[in-house]
């Protein structure tokens, strides 16, 4: 039986497409821009084998498949060995090379990698560094990118630098999407529809009007509405609580000064200092 | 405003703070935050009880201002 050419191409192409779907499994999980030279070549070779095999009827199917399997095996074996051995990994995927160290450009390394000064400046600018003098250390990665460690005084200021205590945060959960309640996300934060309805009622919003609703790790609900003309009140619960703790603390102190009863004076003074401690403990969580 | 009513107002604030801290300690997901809220809640409760007792004394001293 002779199959007409176009039917064969149709079949071959379908098979090639199915193989293509499985192909990402054999590669490292990384963006194509960060593929090493070896991986990029292997990917292109596999793609070409699939493409040619799908329409070149002159080549027997078996040949294409043999080539394909061989390449897939090679990639698999190389990836496996490079998982186990550092030196092999460096050989195949390349290794980061320092191009700036102690704030000084290493011209030798640049020359070795055939990297021009313009390339270096361009890559630094891509990292928002316009002045070489701001850089303490920079590495030329095997993908061609440059990663930069700025000098400490040029790094962004962090709360740690300022010795400011900050409250830990966990990832927020998206509990409403396009007006639909995500029950699973609600359950992961230990909340339910009843809570959501009560919370929306407080803000005076109908659930159908909510485009995105997220709840943070302190149980605070923030929403974006379909109708952007409606003003959503900002959550005020925590700042209010903080203000009311401060006020109470101050009141207690005033009472302790006003009263003439010695016993009551002591009691108010104690209470005031207790509230001050409370303020200190919870302050960072309520900002 | 008499001293008695001022203290009563403060007591009401304390009650609200206590309740808010309690609800936050239940809602917070972070263990450390939970602990901080709980601890503060207990402290506030202690203060609350002391002030409550003082309100009782004030009411006994000035019975004309009893109640809210």
TrEMBL record, chain B:
It comes from the Bacteria. This is DUF1657 domain-containing protein. It comes from Anaerobacillus arseniciselenatis. InterPro entries: DUF1657.
